[in-house]
Amino acid sequence: MTSSNTQRGLTVWFTGLSGAGxxxxxxxxxxxxxxxxxxxESLDGDVVRQRLSKGLGFSKADRDENIRRIGFxxxxxxRHGVVVLVSAISPYRxxxxxxxxxxxxxxxxxxxAPLEICEQRDQKGLYKRAxxxxxxxxxxxxxxxxxxLNPEVECHTDLETVERSAAKVWRVVQATLGR
Length: 179
Ligand code: ADP
Known about the structure:
Layout: H1 3-7, E1 10-15, H2 22-35, E2 40-44, H3 45-50, H4 60-79, E3 83-87, H5 93-103, E4 106-112, H6 115-121, H7 126-131, E5 153-156, H8 162-177
Parallel strand pairs: 1-3, 1-4, 2-3, 4-5
Helix pairs in contact: 2-8, 4-5
The protein binds adenosine-5'-diphosphate.
């Protein structure tokens, strides 16, 4: 591990609908970063909600609080030279921009797949439950998703392979780390 690898941290923030591919891409990036000797840490939305944000719900206030907590941890780690991979729906633009300002070294990745595709994938069966009315306030169904206006990277995961999307993110991450 060279010192230049470890000197400056970075937060890579994956945002998008449930099933868009945030976790998949974050894991692909984690493998590349670890292989390159970078200190890397992942903050996955599902895991965070079981631990750091346990007890929070899905109102706008609770979603914002969830993102603030993730942003707080990501900033600490980034400041200490870690490459932090955040994968969380993070549907609200304003709070994403707030954590971006707070963290500074920040790459926003818009993991973009149309709702129909995410719903077809339905990895966790959540869309089915939301359509059945068992889940209220589900992003994309009866809760808003505000796409980033100027993301550093946009991956169209309905059109690209995982490898292609991961390569796009990797290129920008490498360029940013080298700066
Ligand atoms: P999220 O974390 O956003 O809820 P997941 O990563 O759990 O989404 O699921 C995304 C699904 O989409 C996976 O089954 C993955 O293999 C598939 N997929 C297809 N193409 C891509 C791509 N280009 N990038 C990421 N995921 C993709």
